[in-house]
Amino acid sequence: MTDPDFNLLVALDILLAEESVAGAARRAGLSASAMSRTLTRLREVTGDPLLVRAGRKMVLTPHAQDLKARTQNVVSEMRSVLNNSAAPLHLPTLEQTFYSAYQRGICRNFWPALICACAAQAPGVKLNFVAKSEKGPQFLRDGNVDLEIGVLKNMGPEIRLQALFRDRFVGVLAPTHPLAQGGQITPERYAACEHVIVSRHGMVRGPVG
C-alpha cells in the first residue's frame, strides 16, 4: 500500500478554509492552475468533489464540511510536531476545534464551566460535543474525538486517563416499601426485590439478576 502524500493535507486545509481555488492559490503562493491540479488529486484521493460550483462561487460538499474541522486539527498538530516543542502554548491566540465525546447524565455538569473557561481563556477555541452510545476507546483511537468524558475503563495504555470525580449510587424508596421495614439493606434483600431493567442492547439480565 502506497503511503499518502501528506502535503495534500495542507492544500486541503487551505482549500476548505478559502472555499475558492483562486483564494487558496494566493494563500499558498501557487498559481491558480497548480492549485486546480492539486484539487483534482484531492478529489481522486478522497473520492469526493469537495468544492462544487453554485452560481458564481464555489461551495463545500457535505463531505468537505465534515472534513474541514478535522483537517484543520490534523494540520495544526503536524505543525506543532515540526515546530519548536519548547514554545509555550498561548491560549488567547489558539484557534482550534476540539471534539469531545460524552455520555448523557455526566457531562452536563461540566459543560457550563468548560464553555465559560474556554470563552474567557481561549476565545478562538471551538468545542464540539459528540454523543456516544458505545463504551470503548474506538472514538479516540480513530481520531474522531480529542477528549472523552464519562465512565471509562479498559481504554488501553496509549490513552491517558484522568479522574475528575468519584460518584456513588443513592437509593430512594417509599416508607411503605419492604426494604424500609427495618433491618439492614443487604445485597441479598435488594436482589430479592422486583427490578426493572433498561437496556440499549436488549439485555434481559443485569448486574442484579
From TrEMBL:
GO terms for molecular function: DNA binding; DNA-binding transcription factor activity. Keywords: DNA-binding, Transcription, Transcription regulation. Residues 4-61 form the HTH lysR-type domain. It comes from the Bacteria. InterPro entries: LysR-type_TF, LysR_HTH_N, LysR_subst-bd, WH-like_DNA-bd_sf, WH_DNA-bd_sf. The keyword Transcription regulation applies. Belongs to the LysR transcriptional regulatory family. This is Nodulation protein D 2.
